[in-house]
Amino acid sequence: MRVLIVDDDAGVAGLLRTILVRGGHEVSVAADGAAGRSRLALPPPPDLLILDRMLPDMDGADLLAQVRADPRTARLPVLVISADRTPVDAYGGGATRVLAKPFDLADLRAALSALRTP
After folding, report:
1. Which fold is adopted by the domain 34-112?
2. Distance of alpha carbon 68 from alpha carbon 78, whole angstroms
3. Res 117: pLDDT
4. In what order do the strands lie in the sheet with 2-6?
5. Which residues are CB-neighbours of 16 under 8 A, at least 6 positions away?
6. Cβ–Cβ under 8 Å, residues 55 and 34
7. Run means of pLDDT, 10 residues per run, the chain, 118 residues
8. What are the C-alpha distances in Å from 71 to residues 67, 109, 115?
9. Which end of the chain has the lower number of beta carbons within 10 A, N or C?
């Protein structure tokens, strides 16, 4: 599975990348919304997007809206992660799942497992 992580927190992005690579996934990381948007435009699109809600250059919800508006990525599974304890609007904005930061490894694994299940 190809996974794109868009998160400006290098520690979180690194942890996610390590877990996913150990699981046999191909992972790329973008540190802001513009870089994430650029990576999403490259073929082929990822199989999963892990998106931080609070990015330095845009709100992750704005990037999520762009993902949902693009026919190539409209059905892409998106895991929104956020330090905001109540990212309820992320579901309304098209998130497949939401995980609050800080998260524990068990919650992350459960979310990733649920996203891999058809």
Report:
1. Rossmann fold (3.40.50)
2. 10
3. 54
4. 26-30, 2-6, 48-52, 78-82, 97-100
5. 5, 7, 27, 50, 108
6. no
7. 95 94 95 96 94 91 93 94 66 80 88 77
8. 8, 28, 20
9. C
- The reported pLDDT for the residue numbered 115 is 85
How is residue 18 written in tokens? 């390590």
Q: What is the pTM of this model?
A: 0.91
Using a 10 angstrom Cβ sphere, with 0-12 exposed, 13-18 middle and 19 or more buried, the burial of residue 56 is exposed
Q: Are 96 and 67 in contact (CB under 8 A)?
A: no
Going by C-beta distance under 8 Å and a sequence separation of 6 or more, which residues neighbour residue 12?
A: 52, 81, 101
